[in-house]
Specification:
Blueprint (H helix, E strand, L loop, with lengths): L2 H12 L7 E12 L9 E17 L4 E6 L2 E9 L13 H13 L6 E7 L9 H16 L6 H16 L6 H8 L4 E6 L4 E6 L5 E7 L7 H22 L11 H6 L6 H25 L3 H17 L5 H12 L4 E7 L6 E7 L3 H16 L4 E5 L6 E3 L6
Protein name: Galactokinase
Pathway: Carbohydrate metabolism; galactose metabolism
Subcellular location: Cytoplasm
Length: 393
């Protein structure tokens, strides 16, 4: 059965009523290179995925929101517009709830809705399921209420939701990539100026392979906020020497070296990662534009090593995957992707070597960690959009 028809039928089962139903989709994203730079006003190079969050919705007029998810079939989340408070027990439902509150604050005259979600992004894998559900909700409800808001403004709205309602100090990359993604293109984002450029992602006989470590990212949120604070501390120190530096993206390696012993050694490492990672993103864009996947892959490996040694966010499981994948024939580039401490790696693998790649990596990873990885052959897809009941625009 067609997926969209199946979801509409399930929606009608849970929420019987008229056919005034609309369907929206927001992708997940994978970051090819440029990690932990977005909240430092730096450069990132993500791509939207063909996997994501589907939202089937019908408006109500009684100020009630009723949420269900195909992924959590035994959980109903119901609340009034007058009860938009974070509740730990609501789990995933806090993301749409937070977006609804942001939409109200932005002036959208919401009246309530029945909403049914389905996501085919692995939850907790670092592929931005949270940004996906947030952008699907914000885009869909604003479209249904004919509220004029740009993709960029919607991305900022969803970022505010995660920062203030959920309490995770994310940068703008995830929401921006989910909004502006385009099939067969990566997105070069300058997170300081909030501008972007689409970069052709011509893989030829190679495929993007995401490997899920299946190590839940239990430390990711707390360590993410800790790294942000370390970067803020480093910037405050360097501004005493170089007051013209507004963000860490304005800092060069020469500035860092000239600062001498001013820095705590840990803070120096954090800044060094941000500075070198920004340059790697710029170099990566150049390599992709010239069609040099080998050069691009070398930058991916250098990114992982910097995240491991200077930013210290990889952890044992991702490092085991990285070492195993880097040694595989046909793998021209690999690195961790996402916040770290579990989650996924992203690799570029020749199509003829994918089966061998999966078998080798699985054997090594299971022996060293006791966990079994999952593999996803990725297609690069479009950003947030509305679908018809046939599943196309």
């Amino acid at each position: 059965m067609n997926l969209i028809k199946k979801l509409v039928d399930e929606f009608q089962h849970y929420f019987p009523g008229n056919d005034d139903i609309r369907i929206f989709f927001a992708p997940g994203r994978v970051n090819l290179i440029g990690e932990h730079t977005d909240y430092n006003s730096g450069y990132v190079l993500p791509a939207a995925l063909s996997k994501g969050t589907y939202m089937v919705v019908r408006l109500r007029s009684d100020r009630q929101f009723c949420l269900r998810s195909a992924n959590f079939p035994h959980v109903d989340i119901n609340f009034s517009i007058d009860e938009l408070m974070y509740k730990r027990d609501d789990d995933w439902g806090n993301y749409p709830k937070g977006v609804i509150r942001e939409l109200l604050d932005a002036g959208v005259s919401l009246t309530g809705a029945d909403i049914y979600y389905y996501g085919d992004i692995p939850n907790g894998a670092g592929l931005s399921s949270s940004a996906s559900i947030g952008m699907a909700t914000g885009f869909g409800l604003s479209q249904m209420h004919r509220f004029p808001i740009s993709i960029k403004e919607m991305a900022l709205l969803c970022q505010r939701m995660e920062n203030h309602f959920i309490g995770v100090k994310t940068g703008i990359m995830d929401q921006y990539a989910v909004g502006f993604g385009k099939q067969d293109y990566a997105i070069f984002i300058d997170c300081g100026s909030m501008t972007h450029e689409l970069v052709p992602l011509q893989l030829g006989d190679y495929k993007l392979v995401i490997t899920n470590s299946n190590k839940r990212r239990g430390l990711a949120d707390s360590k993410y906020n800790e790294r942000r604070k370390e970067c803020e501390k480093g910037l405050s120190v360097i501004q005493k020497i170089y007051p013209m530096c507004q963000t860490l993206t304005d800092v060069s390696l020469n500035m860092l070296e000239n600062a001498g012993d001013t820095f705590d050694p840990i803070i120096r490492k954090r800044i060094r990662h941000v500075v070198t990672e920004n340059q790697r993103v710029i170099d990566a864009v150049r390599q992709l534009k010239s069609g040099n996947l080998i050069g691009f892959g070398q930058l991916m490996a250098a990114s992982h090593e910097s995240l491991r040694d200077d930013y210290e966010v990889t952890g044992e499981h991702l490092d085991v995957l990285f070492a195993a994948q880097k040694a595989c024939p046909g793998c021209v580039g690999t690195r961790m992707t996402g916040a770290g401490f579990g989650g996924c790696t992203i690799s570029i693998v020749h199509k003829n070597e994918i089966l061998s790649f999966k078998r080798t990596v699985k054997d090594i990873y299971e022996k060293k960690t006791g966990l079994e990885p999952d593999f996803y052959i990725c297609e690069v897809g479009d950003g947030v959009k509305e679908l018809t009941k046939e599943g196309v625009i």
